[in-house]
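Example record

One chain of 119 residues, shown exactly as stored in the release files.
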Amino acid sequence: QVQLVESGGGLVHSGGSLSLSCVGSGNIASIYGMGWYRQAPGKQRELVASTTETGATRYGDSVKGRVTISTNNTVNTVLLQMNNLKPEDTAVYYCKANALQEGRIRDYWGQGTQVTVSE
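Predicted structure tokens for this chain:
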């Protein structure tokens, strides 16, 4: 099992910045990738950014150039730096970990942290 705890959400004005953190615990040796997703009311959950243990990264089209994902060396902590935030970035942000356990890929999710961007 892997447990994920997010922090860093909150209220920010348009154009502002926020940094989100997600710390994994439990069977962290099985984690090969971590990422951030978000879900706004009435919308599907979408990728914000993801990274793997090799350093490969992916960014959602709507946030490219405004967010940066990074991890510590052990890939059990993933950070998301968000700049130039817009009201449309308002959503619950979820941390996700991809783990390989007993030959099977398992996805784990955090409880989510609210990000609200005001005009």
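Notes: The chain is about 0% helix and 60% strand.
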